[in-house]
Write a structure and sequence with these properties.
Helix content: under 10%
Number of helices: 0
Distance between the termini: 40 Å
Shape: globular
Structural class: mainly beta
Oligomer: single chain
């Protein structure tokens, strides 16, 4: 039903910036939260940032002060502005939306690769 398309990833030098976008399509309503996750090969997917429908945000400790999550409910989009990128940020980034009655989570999209390297 709901399809997610992540974009904006790429190769960037340490200290650089990227803005990731996630576009959701399909039947989506009563959005509870939008989130960004990331995954490195051999490691479990981890929550990077989330934003509730009330605008409350939460961040992984290692990205606080560097990443900013935002949303556009009218367009069913969520963004992740990433500044001061570090090699440790290298991962595939995925978005996820919790929505509906009862609550449900979107399936994972293909993600977008972020590589921080000089």
């Amino acid at each position: 039903q709901v399809q997610l398309v992540e974009s904006g990833g790429g190769l960037v030098q340490p200290g650089g910036s990227l803005r990731l976008s996630c576009a959701a399509s399909g039947s989506i309503f009563n959005i509870y939260a939008m989130s960004w996750y990331r995954q490195v090969p051999g490691k479990q997917r981890e929550l990077v940032a989330s934003i509730t429908r009330d605008g409350m945000t939460n961040y992984l400790d290692s990205v606080k002060g560097r990443f900013t999550i935002s949303r556009d409910n009218a367009k069913n989009m969520v963004y992740l502005q990433m500044n001061s990128l570090k090699p440790e940020d290298t991962a595939i980034y995925y978005c996820s939306i919790r929505y509906g009655l009862p609550l449900r989570d979107t399936n994972w999209g293909q993600g977008t690769q972020v590589t921080v390297s000089s």
